[in-house]
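Could someone model zinc ion with this protein?
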Amino acid sequence: MTATPTDRFAFDLHATDGMARTGVIHTPRGDIRTPAFMPVGTAATVKAMLPESVAATGADILLGNTYHLMLRPTAERIAHLGGLHRFMNWSGPILTDSGGFQVMSLADLRKLTEAGVSFKSHIDGSKHMLSPERSMEIQKLLGSDIVMCFDECPALPADRDRIATSMQLSMRWAQRSRDAFGDRPGHALFGIQQGGLEQDFRAESAQALTDIGFDGYAVGGLAVGEGQEAMFGCLDHATGVLPVDKPRYLMGVGKPDDIVGAVKRGIDMMDCVLPSRSGRTGQAFTRRGVVNLKNARHADDPRPLDEGCTCPACSNYSRAYLHHVFRAQEMILGMLLTWHNLHYYQTLMQGMRDAIAAGRFVAWEADFHAVRAQGDI
Ligand SMILES: CCCSCc1cc(N)cc2c(=O)[nH]c(N)nc12
Ligand SMILES: [Zn+2]
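Reply:
Sure, complex below.
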């Protein structure tokens, strides 16, 4: 991908096919081809991968986490050392999450008020607080190219009153995030739609965010245990009420078939720890489904993991070897399967970008599901 040098953040839509879209997000640090999958680099590293290996899989952008980096090594230390790109040796665009979601899922002794969230670090018990203003400050210290609004994501299932109250708090925090972010040419601020699975609340949230005005819009509050059918049912109405000319980012998704279904419903960007996390546990995603290298049936299998894959794991190693290093708990297992999974995810994204550009997404999706149904993996 040759980046067109630019000092601005802009989204160029190249083609649509039904609700699916393909285009390019231009940033001063490089272009992001959409639909895009964004590997998660929580603590300034995509686990088990060198940054150059992540780039070799085809990733244009990485994710970082405000919550983890504010606790260790702190945003101020990273800023003093030249910013997150220099710190982690990644020159391309970085999107950072705003921290509230991770506080609610990881921290101890959390106290949520209109001002923000106070909590104790899950690492050493130290006391901290996050607010829209502090989150914007941290993401600026990190040097993030795409900054996420500070929001609250309610756990599902939840009653309508809880969802409405939470969504309306997130919309007030979105305004405060916007005010604190200020005017930063070349840097983007994304709003986060909330509202649970409720169509009226999702529309209300989308209108509130559009009225404030953002460079991109995330669909938050999903991939929190609702299941694929409920998630798709929500996306069937939640993306269409977001601005058509800005990137749409579905947070925390997902398995390959989740990603295909989300792109089909108008999503441009996704992130998930699944390809890296499952790689470390011996699970490999392939065109035909998931291969679990823990299974003894691979012990004498000389075949590659996936004949059609060109990644280092599939080009140079057998299933028997991958099974062996899994059982021996060797570090190379996580390295090879993470690389394979991230390569597979990027290959999936490229396949969808090409299919949408050619107006054949429906046929591509049918083939995606048909091949997976064949089994024999
Ligand atoms: C690095 C991780 C990014 S995605 C984390 C995430 C995941 C999911 N599933 C939902 C949300 C959400 O509603 N808000 C925010 N800020 N983040 C969310
Ligand atoms: Zn492979």
